[in-house]
Amino acid sequence: MCGRNIKGSVVGILGCGRIGISIAEKLANFKISQLLYISRSEKPEVKALSGKLVTVDELMERSDFVVVAAALNDETKFIVNRERIATMKSNAILVNIGRGH
């Protein structure tokens, strides 16, 4: 199986706690086109990397790669659902590192 080049891609990080911020920092070396993120508030660490705070729906629709790094709680339990997955680009890749639910 051949991989896809992340260079020039739009990457969305759903959940910018400690792990999400670490991922954003590592992505800076890959020359991505745009970094989108979801968080309860704007994260200066991610903004410094040209990250843009967006809605969940915008992140799902615009991203070529979506990384789910959100903690499991009542607010995030069903944040990635069938309806939102249906709005993703047909060739987008979803990576869930946050939880199994």
Automatic annotation (TrEMBL):
Keyword hit for Oxidoreductase: yes
Superkingdom, natural source: Eukaryota
Family indicated by similarity: Belongs to the D-isomer specific 2-hydroxyacid dehydrogenase family.
Organism: Melanaphis sacchari
Gene3D superfamilies in UniProt: NAD(P)-binding Rossmann-like Domain (3.40.50.720)
Coiled coil: none
Keywords (A to Z) from UniProt: Oxidoreductase
Annotated D-isomer specific 2-hydroxyacid dehydrogenase NAD-binding domain residues: 3-100
Name this polypeptide is given: Glyoxylate reductase
